[in-house]
Amino acid sequence: MIIPYKSLLILRILNVFRSICTIFASIMDIETLEGIRKCPLFEGLTDNEIIDLMHTVRYRVIRLYKGDFLFVAGDDCLHANILIDGEVVAYLDGASDRHIRMSTFHAGNMFAPAFLFAQDRRYPVTVQATTNTKVLRILSTDFERLLELDPRLSKNFTFILSNLIAGLTKKVGMLLSSVRDKIIFFLKEERRRQQSNTIQLSMSRQELADHFGIQKYSLQRALNELQESGAIRIDGKTIEILKL
To answer: Which of 48, 128, 150, 155 has a CA-to-CA distance to 91 between 20 and 30 Å?
Structure first.
């Protein structure tokens, strides 16, 4: 049978379109894999092992634009969420429409993993994108099956929960301390994380005040007192620790 020229042309266009879609899908898979690889849950697994395991569960990658909400406080935790790319913040609603910044998440981080299997599965915080972001979502039932398929995942998940509890314990201690002690604790943690006495702040003064759950003027006053005492030197978003 002779295929008309127009039909043949349409078929060729469709084949090219399918090829482009296939290439695009492969690129997206690579981007997703790179994000998953950064997650401590998959520590010790090869790329092929990760791909094989992910083929056994239902998941999807969602895109958030800056300012979009991943979830709000009170929503049910129905998915395991892994940040693939971008940045999000988690905060509590405080008094007088103020927010207390609890955590900042980057690629590879999981959000509130303990609530996946809690009796009360409602999120205690609101999570909002601060940049354009991609998040991998796995249904909680599929995530549970994923942990059962490889004992390394179960072990890694235990480590994640343990570190989360330790971090929250420090966070509670910081929130209950004085403004000065909050700042000193934060600066010491940043010195350890950045491995330098010269710290580059990623947050504005207002964001830092929200992180501590205090007013901006209280933060600025405490920073000035630390600088006047010779403990730190401030230059914009750069803080040099002199003696803490």
So the answer is: 155
Q: Which residue type is seen at 110?
A: M
Domains of the chain: 28-150 (2.60.120.10), 177-241 (1.10.10.10)
143: burial class by Cβ within 10 Å (0-12, 13-18, 19+)?
buried
Q: E-strand spans in 37-161? A: 59-64, 69-71, 79-85, 88-93, 99-105, 126-129, 133-139
| Residue 234 host element (H or E) | strand 232-235
Q: Residue 64 — pLDDT band, cuts 50, 70, 90?
A: very high
DSSP string, 144-171: HHHHHH-HHHHHHHHHHHHHHHHHHHHH
Query: Tokens for 64?
Result: 């958030």
Residue 22: pLDDT band (50, 70, 90) is very low
Mean pLDDT of 114-142: 91
- Pairwise CA distance, residues 75 & 191, whole Å: 35
User: Counting Cβ atoms within 10 Å, is residue 132 exposed (0-12), middle (13-18) or buried (19+)?
Assistant: middle
**Residue 216 exposure: Cα atoms within 13 Å on the Cβ side:** 7
